[in-house]
Design a protein that fits this description.
Layout: H1 6-13, H2 17-29, H3 33-46, H4 51-63, H5 67-79, H6 85-97, H7 101-114, H8 119-131, H9 135-148, H10 153-165, H11 169-182, H12 187-206, H13 213-228, H14 233-245, H15 249-256, H16 259-262, E1 285-289, H17 294-300, H18 302-308, E2 313-317, H19 323-326, E3 333-335, E4 346-349, H20 353-356, H21 375-385, E5 390-395, H22 417-420, E6 425-429, H23 461-467, E7 472-476, H24 479-486, E8 491-495, E9 516-520, H25 527-542
Parallel strand pairs: 1-2, 1-4, 2-3, 5-6, 5-7, 7-8, 8-9
Helix pairs in contact: 2-3, 3-4, 4-5, 5-6, 6-7, 6-8, 7-8, 8-9, 9-10, 10-11, 10-12, 11-12, 12-13, 12-14, 13-14, 14-15, 17-24, 21-23
């Protein structure tokens, strides 16, 4: 039996600070956080200014969701000596989670300055830039992160998601496939693959193909993701959107019920019992809570009137500015303040109703119009607009299209130039938000009207009245075309090839709006061909 030296025995009985740190790291990596923290605490007892121990304790704090404590510890470590790239990277992550993105990106930049090869800092910086709408700069940072660490599954997933949002699904699919090959334990990748495969299927339909195997592949990807993680709500939501797109509304709306858990809910829950779709009886009190965008509210509020026609006492809880327009629903009470509700009642998100009542494209009630314009406003606007031979209201972007990243639904205002040149045609801008300012530099005549000017005013009351004096509405996939459809006004809707589920596929009509005609982009994703077909259709109306 070998005898230990006195030095070895002493070292074994009294670990050095370096050894304590190594022990802490070992237990940390094994997932034994309590033991790891014991070692880090012992280091700090021996050396209160040990920046390595402070760093690892800050890491643990962030891992446990204590981001303020993590940020404070990281700052303390930085105050004790020369900053390191990993400390600035950690501080940036904590600040991001604390809702301080500008300070976070400063720290990621500092981390990269100190160590340009720190892949994590490039990836974290990219995520901040995505949230800020700076897609081009974000993509550069993702590219650098993946160049430095090709096996970074989170960066591959996040770059894929950005590429998909930028309308580059083929590249996104490559990133997702690489991520799966690198680490097959992320069910989120299959959920993302399902989304991008759905987009590729729409593009193939846009090429004129009768069908696309991509839809089947997408469904299988969602199914795999759900099998791997039955709580992965984003996979259910994606699968639901695919089913709705393909016309399977019963299955689609069932999966669509996961939308609130898949991200930030688009509605505020109420305190009374939530309606689960059980049969309603005459006299039952039901509150429907509007959700998501203005177009969604206009599209789905018809179901409130449908339930009211069955004897249900229906109240719609909406944004206050939408109350006057929605109050034209038949036999439906509309309020803008939950405090005005009187218990007892049951409630549900508005967009859950079609699934609960078994709506299909074939059974969607054709009760259009279901909203109405105010007669006094209609008369007033008829006088203001005059009697041009053929008046067309146009809308070319969502009202929130002042974001840095352009939506695939946006159309260039210049695409309407040939319509403006048609004899007898007057174009009238129904555009809301920042894009309305583009009229001043359009280079062709578009009449502007001072309608619905107050940002906090009664939404769409003037616009609805104006539409009653128009011969046609032409717009992108935004609230304006939903309003025209709900009023039963003639409307041409320009739909991108990667389209929203509600427009389905291979249709030039919509079960939602009998007076609407759909004009779809082809796989080139150019609006010129769409507007050329719209011009032909307008000429036919003029003939």
């Amino acid at each position: 039996m070998n005898e230990k030296t006195t030095e070895q025995t002493a070292a074994a009985g009294h670990p050095t600070i370096a050894q304590l740190l190594q022990q802490g790291l070992f237990h940390h990596r094994q997932g034994d956080i309590p033991t790891a923290m014991e070692r880090y605490a012992e280091v700090l007892r021996l050396d209160a200014e040990n920046t390595e121990a402070l760093y690892y304790v800050a890491v643990v704090a962030c891992q446990e969701g204590q981001f303020k404590e993590g940020a404070d510890l990281a700052r303390r470590a930085l105050s004790l000596g020369p900053g390191t790239a990993k400390l600035h990277n950690l501080l940036g992550q904590a600040l991001d989670r604390l809702g301080q993105p500008l300070e976070a990106v400063k720290n990621f930049d500092k981390a990269i300055e100190l160590d340009p090869t720190l892949a994590a800092a490039h990836g974290n910086r990219a995520n901040i830039l995505v949230d800020a709408g700076m897609a081009t700069e974000a993509l550069k940072s993702f590219n650098r992160a993946i160049e430095l660490n090709p096996a970074s599954t989170p960066d591959l997933i996040n770059r894929g998601a950005l590429l998909e949002e930028l309308g580059r699904p083929e590249e996104a699919l490559k990133d997702y496939d690489t991520a799966i090959a690198t680490d097959p334990t992320y069910p989120e990748v299959d959920a993302n693959r399902g989304s991008v495969l759905k987009d590729l299927g729409l593009i193939e339909i846009g090429r004129g193909e009768a069908d696309s195997p991509r839809f089947t592949e997408a469904m299988a990807a969602y199914d795999r993701a759900i099998k791997a993680n039955k709580a992965l709500h984003s996979a259910y939501l994606g699968r639901g959107i695919l089913k709705l797109t393909l016309g399977d509304w019963p299955g689609g709306f069932a999966d669509y019920e996961h939308r609130a858990e898949a991200g930030k809910p688009g509605f505020t829950p109420l305190p009374e019992p939530r309606w689960d779709g059980a049969p309603l009886q005459a006299g039952d009190k039901l509150v429907l809570v509007t959700e998501q965008g203005l177009g969604d509210t206009i599209q789905f509020c018809r179901f409130a009137a449908q339930l009211a026609a069955q004897g249900v006492e229906v109240t719609v809880l909406a944004r206050p500015a939408m109350v006057p327009l929605l109050s034209t629903l038949k036999n439906v009470k509309v309020i803008g303040d939950a405090e005005a509700l009187a218990a007892p009642y049951r409630w549900a998100p508005l967009m859950s109703v079609p699934g609960f009542i078994g709506t299909t494209p074939e059974t969607l009630p054709p009760d259009v119009p279901y909203l109405a314009a105010d007669p006094a406003r209609v008369a007033a606007w008829a006088d203001k607009l005059g009697d041009a031979p053929f008046k067309i209201g146009i809308n070319w972007a969502p009202g929130h299209a002042d974001k840095t990243m352009t939506s695939r639904r946006d159309m260039p205002l210049a695409a309407f130039a040939k319509l403006a040149a048609l004899p007898g045609v007057e174009l009238i801008a129904l555009q809301k938000g920042a894009p309305a300012g583009e009229v001043a530099t359009a280079g062709f005549k578009v009449r502007t009207v001072e309608a619905d000017m107050r940002a906090d005013g009664d939404y769409f009351l003037d616009t609805a009245a104006i539409m009653e004096s128009l011969d046609l509405v032409i717009g992108c996939d935004a609230a304006v075309v939903h309003l025209a459809g709900a009023l039963a006004r003639p409307v041409f809707t320009a739909v991108p090839v990667i389209s929203d589920w509600r427009w389905m596929i291979r249709r030039d009509t919509s079960p939602w709006y009998p007076t609407m005609t759909l004009f779809r982009q082809d796989a080139t994703r150019h609006w010129g061909a769409v507007m050329a077909r719209i011009e032909v259709a307008v000429r036919a109306k003029l003939a």
